[in-house]
Please model this.
Amino acid sequence: MGKGAYISRKIAAISLLTALSLVTFILEGLLPPMFIPGAKPGLANIFSLVALIMYSPVEAFAVVAIRTLLGSLFAGNISALIYSLTGGVVAMGISSILLYLVHPKVSVMAISVAAAVSHNVTQDIVFVFISGTPLMLGYMPYLILLGILSGAVVGGVTLLIFHGVPQNVFDKLLLRKTQD
Model:
């Protein structure tokens, strides 16, 4: 396979993961909040975690950034962009560090939980900083608990994807030659 074909297939795979992430994000926006105003399960993060595991932090950050930008535009909530983007970047940074420096001593499930908790904590801190409302730090324990719950769900679904999808599908997405 030539370099041009390789790049085209990789862009297509990342685009697919981004589109799946964006659709999931939009569908989540239709759900009622989880116990705390604005809290969502974070299922769209499944696809950025898949991108991180399959490719690299660069591709995973692209999925997060594009999903966050387009999701904010489609939802008509541009003001939330700063919260979502900072939370997503911090979460992906922590996921990248844990996956590439500590895994397999730390499981994918634990990586997902750490990412979700850091995402929620970051968003709360950014909100407090921007709004000047330090009382919002009182939500932190609840946001941490929700992060543990949502991170476990995202990590579990991600593991199910890697265990349930045939290897040859991943070989094609990873652009490896398969034996027919």
Observations:
- The CA atoms of residues 18 and 62 lie 8 Å apart.
- Residues 3-173 form a domain with the Arp2/3 complex 21 kDa subunit ARPC3 fold (CATH 1.10.1760.20).
- The mean pLDDT is 89.
- The chain has one domain: 3-173.
